Amino acid sequence: MRVTQFSDIGLRVLIYLSKASNERAPATIAEIAGQFDIAVNHLVKVVGHMARVGWIQATRGRNGGIRLAVEPDTLHIGSVLRELEGDAELIDCNARQCSLSQDCRLRSALDEGLKAFYDALDRYTLSDMTAGGTGEKIVRMHRAFLQKSLQFA
């Protein structure tokens, strides 16, 4: 299975915010877009969706930004991907006529594989994704961005 760009961006944002939200200033769309080389318009859509779900708190205005709105150890990666990917099946057997549809076992095998994929990811939380060097790197990235923006202010 391959996750969509939407989910990839969503996971990166959540991982980044899980550490950057602990700092004195919130992260911004521009910051995250620059840190991960993501198009701002894509990022805005993803952040908007995650704010509606309740994972992110977005504040408008000059001192605004985005912060994580949930505890990182309560947000499971499988749940995140289920939400961001939607509940689509891997194969749509009803989309076209198939001579095998009466006796085909492919759909159930793919469903079983997808369930195993999500079950495996449910064992990991956002906190797990930022353990060790990853979390330390995010803190350094955010602090460097803040220092740079203070120089231009």
From TrEMBL:
Identify the keywords attached in UniProt to this record, alphabetized.
Answer: DNA-binding
Q: Which PROSITE patterns match?
A: HTH_RRF2_2
Q: Which residues cross the membrane?
A: none
Would the keyword DNA-binding turn up in this protein's UniProt record?
Answer: yes
Q: What is this protein called?
A: Rrf2 family transcriptional regulator
User: Which species?
Assistant: Keguizhuia sedimenti
